[in-house]
Amino acid sequence: MINSRLAVAIHILSIISVDEKASSEIIADSVNTNPVVVRRMISLLKKADILTSRAGVPGASLKKDPADISLLEVYRAVQKQEELFAVHDNPNPKCPVGKRIQCALDETFESVQKAMEDELASKSLNDVMNHLFL
């Protein structure tokens, strides 16, 4: 299911792109969340090779120029792939609709997922930042 992880990750990356010394506390204040949430998100972004940081040293830095970081990269770093649409659990297999509903929805859900990913791939962190700092 769609949640706020992508938006929070983009928020974090936007702050880091303009202030590499920003601590998780400073970022958390901007995001309006707990610093632990920020540190977890930074960890995911590091695993995806988007960020670099050092233990015990406040701040982080982007590994690429913001124009070279697609929103799809960020999405894949922080969002479990199976989460966009939840599977319809336990429909009645004796019902003509219930026994075929998931199969009927799969094709539509896959095309919607692909369209969303194509759109995210066409946008960069820099595109977002251009809207922030007009």
UniProtKB/TrEMBL annotation:
<dbReference type="Pfam" id="PF02082">
    <property type="entry name" value="Rrf2"/>
</dbReference>
<dbReference type="InterPro" id="IPR036390">
    <property type="entry name" value="WH_DNA-bd_sf"/>
</dbReference>
<dbReference type="InterPro" id="IPR036388">
    <property type="entry name" value="WH-like_DNA-bd_sf"/>
</dbReference>
<dbReference type="InterPro" id="IPR000944">
    <property type="entry name" value="Tscrpt_reg_Rrf2"/>
</dbReference>
<protein>
    <recommendedName>
        <fullName>Rrf2 family transcriptional regulator</fullName>
    </recommendedName>
</protein>
